[in-house]
Amino acid sequence: MDLVSTKAQLREGMPVAGGRWPVLGHMPTVLRRLTAFHLEARERYGALYWMDAGFGNFQLMYSSAEAVALFRSKAADSSYMRNVAGDLLGESLIVMDGAPHTKVRNTLNPSFSPKGLSTANIGEIVGRVMTRHVGPWAGESEVSIVPATREIALDIIFQMIGIPATDLSAWRKAYEEFLFTAINLPIDLPGFPKWRGRKASRWLQARLGELVRQARTKDTAEGLLERMAQARDADGELVEEGQLIDNLRLLALAGHETTASTMAWMAIHLAQEPKWWEALVEEATRNGQPPQSPMELRNFPVAESIFREALRLHPPVAADARVVIGDLELEGHSIPKGTIVGIPIVAMLRDPDAFPDPHTFRPERWHGKDRQTPLETIAFGSGPHFCLGYHVAWMESVCFGAQLALTLGKAGKRLKAPAKVPERYVPFIQPSPKIVLEVVGA
Q1: CA 399 to CA 63: how far, in whole Å?
Q2: How far apart are the first and last CA of the chain?
Q3: CB 109 within 8 A of CB 233
Q4: What is the CA radius of gyration of the chain?
Q5: Mean pLDDT score, 179-202
Q6: Would residue 52 count as lying in a domain?
Q7: Mean per-residue pLDDT for 242-250?
Q8: Could you report the per-residue pLDDT of 22-47, keeping only the tens digit for each?
Q9: For 288, phi and psi rounded to 5 degrees?
């Protein structure tokens, strides 16, 4: 269905994107071509346009580099998330603002700093898991890349929080069901998505609660879970158990799905780009082993550039949003309080003014960048809600690239991918789970 009509309908003086379906709004279009929807809407309507999220729910999309400022604006916050995704997010940091958010965030931050991750031996965990999963690929003829990277990411995150490997299948199933809480379907009956999602949520909450209570009884805080569970704020208080459980639950969900998607896209682009595969093999061979700690990541500029470019082209979280709570003006329009302003990350990371030749895989655009701008890291959010697990995702992805290059490079092999790989957009931007990469001679 075409995005645009000859005369755009206006809402609060701003255009509503064309191509809406009855009742479902733009959702059928977004499910099939999410990135294209936002790119075409920005081109045809400008930086501000309304998206109909279905069932009468509208979001004002702000597709401009200036939208990054909303993450720090006192005129907007995250409070709307409790209403639209309360079952999924619980009392995690994502739905918190102001002093309560600052208190919990400052308490958990040290566990996720490079120093905290090194103390918890996260580099060792990541390296061990990568070797176990990627090592056998040299003897395979093909790899189902999405299930494979999902297994890697799940294994890492669960080891980080102390879940026994024997229990992985049950946890994996629970998280798959838990994702149903994000589906915008106003039917809550046994067997339907929301009902199944809440059932899985209760299962996860009970088991994470057991892990938290066990972690708080230990004499030392060496592992990541123990460090989080025993961390105290400036007043000497522990994070409330319910808040800690909700943050752990979301960390495990976001941590494995988003990183798995990025690693899969890295592998696909490397399979399509022999030049970058050869450069990565040379770098990995020169270093001799993947990075063992966050401090060693800078020894892998090629792997890091491939990670950042794959993330730019395919940010797992397509959009973020804030609700207007104060006086806010955008592009000359006064935005009414209560308006949900969406930030289409997928379009912002393909802005030709910020990223020349935006639809082309060009890792060289990241070379020599010791620090990234807020726009360049917007896939991780920005401002007070910047992703808590940023350094973990960075570590995992670079280690994956290095381990892949070492494993296949030593065997004289590489991956081969189809010229075009379809995307899936719900609940995260991912390659099609059916994509298979061939393992061929280099």
Answers
A1: 33
A2: 43
A3: no
A4: 22
A5: 81
A6: no
A7: 91
A8: 999 999 999 899 999 999 999 999 99
A9: 85, -25
d(CA 108, CA 371): 23
Does residue 30 lie within any of the structural domains?
Answer: no
pLDDT at position 355:
97
Cis preceding-peptide flag for 427 (omega within 30 of 0): yes
Within a domain: 248: yes
Contact 296, 127 (CB under 8 A): no
Residue 87, domain extent: 64-441
pLDDT of residue 185: 67
For residue 287, what are the CA distances in angstroms to 290, 302, 402, 403?
7, 12, 9, 11
**Residue 127 tokens, joined:** 């390296």
Average pLDDT, the chain: 92
**Alpha-carbon span 101 to 107, nearest angstrom:** 10
Tokens coding 118: 């090194």
Cα 194 to Cα 196: distance, rounded to the nearest angstrom: 5
Please return the burial class of 172, using the count of CB atoms within 10 Å of its CB with bins 0-12, 13-18 and 19+: middle
Mean pLDDT lowest among 6-10, 70-74, 155-159, 168-172: 6-10
User: Total domain count for the chain?
Assistant: 1
Residue with tokens 């995307």, as numbered in its chain: 423
Q: Using one digit for the tens of pLDDT, what is the confidence trace for 262-287?
A: 999 999 999 999 999 999 999 999 99
Relative orientation angle of helices 390-410 and 98-112, to the nearest 10 degrees: 30
**What are the tokens at 159?**
């080891």
The H or E element spanning position 344 is strand 340-344
Nearest to 398 by CA among 252, 257, 295, 248: 295
Q: How far is CA 198 from CA 86, 193, 211, in A?
A: 11, 9, 20
Closest listed residue to residue 292, CA positions, set 221, 370, 398, 156: 398
Reply yes or no on whether the pLDDT at 179 is more than 50: yes
The CATH number assigned to the domain holding 207 equals 1.10.630.10
Asked whether residue 289 is domain-assigned, the answer is yes
C-alpha 163, offset from chain centre: 22
CB atoms within 10 A of CB 135: 12
Amino acid at 286: R
Residue 231 to residue 160: CA distance in whole angstroms? 16
Burial 101-116, CB ≥16 within 10 A → b, else e: bebbbebbeebbebeb
Which residue shows structure tokens 């976001």? 254
Report whether 406 contacts 287 (CB < 8 A): no
- Calpha distance 134→320 (Å, rounded): 33
pLDDT at 1: 44
Q: Which of 114, 423, 366, 111 is nearest to 251 (CA)?
A: 111
